[in-house]
Structure formats: C-alpha cells, structure tokens
Specification:
The protein has 92 residues and is mostly helical. The protein has 3 helices and no strands.
C-alpha cells in the first residue's frame, strides 16, 4: 500500500519510531527480568537482590512509555519480588 498523503507518510514515520522505542524498552525489560531469574535459578541471592531494583526500574520505564499495560508491569514486579524474598534464608 503506497502512502500518498503527507499526513499518512508522517503518521507512518511516527509509528515506526514508536515501534522501535517500544521494542527497545521491552527488550531491556525482558533482559533484566531474565538476569534476575538466572540469579534465582543459580541460588545467588546477592546478585538477585542487586539486579531486582534495576529490573523494577526497567519495568516502570516500559509502563511509563506505554509499551506494556500497568497491570502487566505490576504483575512482573510482584512475581519477581516474591521469588527474590522466597530465596532469602529465614531467620529463626
């Protein structure tokens, strides 16, 4: 489909730019989530605790940019936090 109107051409350009931004943000978010999960799988509590704030920041940024829904971001943060706290040794 050929774009013929200036407004359609501009809108297409903007949509490509937004798509690239959303992909970057989501990719960064997924990378940090994966790093936290790898630290959890290896049992490295210190690394998981160190990476969790970075993952939460990436999730919040992705939500703020509108790439994912707010509830989706909250769900990711909740599940990661719960897994990291479950790894902590319980003090008796």
């Amino acid at each position: 489909m050929a774009l013929r109107h200036k407004s359609a051409i501009k809108q297409h350009r903007q949509s490509l730019s937004r798509q690239a931004t959303n992909q970057r943000n989501k990719s960064l978010m997924k990378t940090y989530i994966k790093k936290v999960r790898q630290a959890l799988a290896s049992g490295d509590q210190e690394a998981a605790l160190e990476l969790l704030p970075k993952a939460i920041k990436a999730i919040d940024k992705t939500v703020a940019k509108g790439a994912i829904h707010q509830n989706t971001g909250s769900r990711h943060k909740s599940r990661l936090s719960k897994q990291v706290t479950a790894l902590k040794p319980k003090v008796s």
